[in-house]
Amino acid sequence: MGMTTAVNPVEPLLRSERMPHLWCPGCGIGTTVNCFARALERSKLPLDKVAVVSGIGCTGRVAGYINLDSFHTTHGRAIPFATGLKLANPDLTVAVYSGDGDLISIGGNHFIHAARRNVDIKVICVNNFIYGMTGGQVAPTTPLGAVATTAPYGSFERPFNLPFLAESSGAVYVARWTAYHVQHIAHSMTEALRKKGFSFIEILAPCPTLYQRRNKLGDGLDTMRYYKERSVIKNGASTRDLDLDFQGEITVGKFVDVERPTLQETMDRLYRQRLEDRYFGWRQP
Amino acid sequence: MSATHEIRIAGFGGQGVILAGMVIGRAAAIFDGKHVTLTQSFGPEARGSAASVDLIVSPEPVLYPYLTRLDVLVAMSEEAYTRFVPELHPGGTLLFEQDLVNFQANRPDIHAFGIPATRLAEELGRKFILNLVMVGFVTGVTGIVPADAVRKSIADSVPKGTESLNTAAFDKGLEYALSQKLAAIHQ
Amino acid sequence: MNLVHADPKTVLTGAHFMDGNHAACEGAIAAGANFAAGYPITPSTEIVERFAARAPLVGATFLQMEDELASSIAILGAAWGGAKSFTVTSGPGFSLMMEHIGFAAMTETPSVFVDVQRGGPSTGLPTLPAQADMMQARWGSHGDYEIIALSPSSPQECFDVMIDAFNFAERYRNPVFVMMDESVGHMTEKVVIPSADRVLLVPRRYTCLPPSEYLPFKPSPDGIPEMARMGQGYHFHVTGLTHDASGYPAINAQTQQELLSRLVGKIRNDADKIARAEERQIEDARIVLVAYGITARVALRAVQLAREERIPAGLLRPIVVWPFPEKRIRELAGQAKAFIVVEMNQGQIVHEVERGVAGRARTVLVPHAGGAVHRPEAILEVIREVAQWA
User: If both were cysteines, with which of A259, B126, C57, C326 could C356 make a disulfide (CB 3.0 to 4.6 Å apart)?
Assistant: First the structure.
């Protein structure tokens, strides 16, 4: 993944003293982190004003490796933590970086409400179809029929279509890529970092240790090959049509990029309208 | 008056029962230097159309905050009257809206005073200020809180722009008490 | 410690006739709270309703969250963002907040949690009082930690202890609890709000060190680390995992030992400085009543009634309930023959009293299941019985 090479331009954005990281060989999370570092650079944002918030799980450890103000919070609650952080310190750009189990299962309620409110946060979800940190249990993203330790005969639940969930809840920016699409990921992340409002990027990533091995899908490289061969880029596709089947075709692309006032903009407008000069504005900390 | 008084104001929703309690309580606590504790019923019995508010007014700090010896009942509905009159302590005072309460002289041990508060409010053009008419009546009959304190409290308690209307209602109730006091239904 | 005055633009100076919930809200605003998140729950809701109305007038933000899990961590995010923040709830919501109380303790996040207690367990008595969450406040989250909890017994004190709560939260970088009850929350009395220059506040402890020299969890000489401002290039990391002074996870027994002894020690070692209690007629008391919150008022009435009967009773009312004033109980155990603990639960703080008394006097519990406060006469009955042998 080249995260530790001395000439790597993203190195100052990573906490090199924390390397080696804890992710397994072939894991896709590190790839996405590299993309994120590139996106931070390209975004031209003042980096001291960017904060990263993670929940719990393998992707939840991302906050610990990015050399910015960073928070490793509780399981499922990265989004409400980030909501408080952003509202209290509106100058910050707040990115939530976590996994599918954290954001969509235990944190699912927060996910839909933050999207509905259009909280100005950027949510990056690394979706590896499984609970990694706890050893390979079924997730709300596990494809129908795929095997997990708590679904030993295959998952019998329909998985979430995350871009559809995000869009229908109110996200203003929605994209999906796989860990193979590093240029696209970095580009989408750059766009999301610059965009105001609730932005959501799903990145399908291999978990060779648990998901791929248990489902006899080979190693990380085999998964990259699968992503390469079965991904179809359909920018602007209807998010309704983005269900994922076990080892089926993967629709990737940028699906939603619309404008809608953020929570803080709406709050500010209504207060101004109703209270006029009695409105105090926000007391900066 | 220096003794402790326990007051209950009861009626139905929309009569401004709680505001009436707040006006009296604020008058006694802020403008007359008394210790006052106001409580409302928040239990399941507070649901539906009934509304009530309890006040303890005392020269001493109020320790037990709920009523133990009801001595002034202000009944603004038939339901409030029938429900709470049995709780009125012997020697206590009943003040009631005489057009809304079917008064029966079955408690010879209490003092009872009626007022057509709704009609008096309507004379001022606003039926909804009957609560302040009632406050004036309570003030005039019981003397628990000085009228001046209540006037100041009204200014602090009612929506801006309604102060004079509410004060007029208060004065109306107060005058009625003073003019009717001797003719009241003493038993 | 340098104290600062409250902002006069936010303090509603004057004499008010208001209920405990509204007074608690004004206390928070006077204390400088500029962020609150909450979820409606009886009998606490008036606090956030008032804060929602006042927030845009005083430069604060209120957000009604989707649940108490969200509220209880949104305030922690806001605290790290630089806000003074709090949340408000009652029993069932308090149960949902427990994980984030541990997170706040572990990450040393200044935060205030208000629990307007109602009857439980479960949905219990939503509109009626109890004091049955006292142990939950102390022990409700998993793992070892220490908290500070205050218990007001009047609307005036709801205002007062909110300021103490925010000051303790900043001073000790810790979650602090205001354990109200439905009775105190919903009763209306005179509340005097002082002028802003009489409200003294503990400012956030921010580091003066440059980023290159700063370690986010390196304790100051008093055991408490200084925070760094967000967005200033400190690039600090905060985790609920066991961490060393650098703030990074360190998953081993030695780091755990060092961290836990510091987290617990910063409160325990200062217990005497944090303690706050009211004593009434205690000098010659052979029977000491111990009660807090609304129950203390009723217990004081019982003490007055007992004194009328020449029974030497007195009252110890902890305003800070956690850390428990164990030392004072130990002292009084030398003088009193009996302790009567009056609380609106089936026996919680009584265990602390028994521990402090350590067999040197008798301890008697006057419990109440909740739904109503004790009648002073019922407490007097117990005092009379105890006076037979005390």
Answer: C326
Name which CATH class applies to A17-278: alpha beta
Q: Does C64 touch chain A (CB under 8 A)?
A: no
Residues C284 and C186 in one domain: no
**3-class secondary structure, A236:** coil
Any idea where the domains of chain A sit in the sequence?
17-278
At residue C1, does pLDDT exceed 90?
A: no
Looking at residue B125, its pLDDT comes to 92
Alpha-carbon distance of A239 to A255, in angstroms, equals 7
Q: What is the ipTM of this complex?
A: 0.97
Q: Are strands A50-54 and A93-99 parallel, antiparallel or unpaired?
A: parallel
Which residues are C241's β-sheet partners? none
Q: Which residues pair with A54 in a beta bridge?
A: A72
Residues shown for chain B: 187
State the DSSP string of C74-122: HHHHHHHHT--EEEEE-HHHHHHHHHHHHHHHHHT--EEEEEEEEE-ST
C22-78 pLDDT, tens per residue? Answer: 999 999 999 999 999 999 999 999 999 999 999 999 999 999 999 999 999 999 999
Q: Which of C201, C224, C251 is the last residue of a domain?
A: C201
Does residue C161 belong to any structural domain of this protein?
yes
- Tell me whether C40 touches chain A (CB under 8 Å): no
Q: Tally helices (H) and strands (E) across chain B.
A: 6, 6
Q: What is the DSSP letter of C143?
A: S
- Helices first, then strands: H and E counts in chain C: 13, 18
Q: Do C298 and B22 make contact, defined as CB atoms within 8 angstroms?
A: no
Angle formed at CA C315 by CA C309 and CA C321, multiple of 5 degrees = 160
Scan for tokens 């602007």, then name that residue: A236
At a CB cut-off of 8 Å and minimum separation 6, what does A274 contact?
A: none
pLDDT tens-digit profile of B20-36?
Answer: 999 999 999 999 999 99
A72 in Cβ contact with A64 (< 8 Å): yes
The CATH superfamily holding the domain B5-183 is Pyruvate-ferredoxin oxidoreductase, PFOR, domain III (3.40.920.10)
- Rounded to the nearest 10 degrees, the angle between the axes of helix B130-142 and helix B147-157 is 160
User: Which domain covers residue C14, as residue numbers?
Assistant: 4-201
Report the number of distinct structural domains present in chain C.
2
C-chain residues near A71 (CB < 8 A): 77, 80, 237-239
Q: Which two tokens stand for residue B29?
A: 């606590």
Confidence of residue C318 (pLDDT cuts 50, 70, 90): very high
Burial C66-100 (b: 16+ CB within 10 A, else e): bebbbbbbbbbbbbbbbbbbbbbbbbbbbbbbbbb
Q: Which chain B positions have a beta carbon within 8 Å of C294's beta carbon?
A: 65
State how far the Cα of C130 lies from the Cα of C376, in Å rounded to an integer. 16
Confidence of residue B183 (pLDDT cuts 50, 70, 90): very low
Burial class from Cβ neighbours inside 10 Å (0-12, 13-18, 19+) for residue C260 reads middle
**Is C190 in the same domain as C305?**
no
Are the beta carbons of C80 and A71 separated by less than 8 Å?
yes
- Both structure tokens of B67: 């009523």
Chain C residues within an 8 Å CB radius of A53: 77
Q: What is the pLDDT of residues A31-85, one digit of tens each?
A: 999 999 999 999 999 999 999 999 999 999 999 999 999 999 999 999 999 999 9
